[in-house]
Amino acid sequence: MMNIRIETPSDYAAVERLTFAAFETMNLPGRTHTSEHFLVSLLRSDPWFIPELDFVAELDGEIVGSIFYSHSKIVRPDGGETDAITFGPVSVAPKLHGKGIGSALIHCFKSRKG
Questions:
Q1: How far is it, in rounded angstroms, from Cα 61 to Cα 49?
Q2: By C-alpha distance, which of 70, 73, 58, 46 is closest to 8?
Q3: C-alpha dihedral over 39, 42, 46, 52, to 10 degrees?
Q4: Cβ contact 49:28 at 8 Å
Q5: What does the DSSP 8-state code read for residue 14?
Q6: Residue 5, beta-bridge partner list
Q7: Are 22 and 91 in contact (CB under 8 A)?
Q8: What whole-number distance in Å separates Cα of residue 66 and Cα of residue 57?
Q9: Across-strand partners of 2?
């Protein structure tokens, strides 16, 4: 049974290792290394980060997924701005890709936002 909960400081190292592993296998043109695990560390101290929407997924006591949300703005061509919330990175343990963990983390937002 998968459990989705808010990330705690004791999860930070595990989430950073998970994020490294999740993105390490991406094979994109021009990509020479993974840096998403550094991004999650930086996000936690950013004023636009939303800790109430910082979720981890656990399976049998192991963190197997994570998602981060931040405030953002959409700048229109006329210069006007619209407040928004963006997410990422979404990380899932490579051995569990395609099992619905990332989708569950994204859908968790819907149940918590309102």
A1: 26
A2: 58
A3: 70
A4: no
A5: H
A6: 56
A7: yes
A8: 6
A9: 59
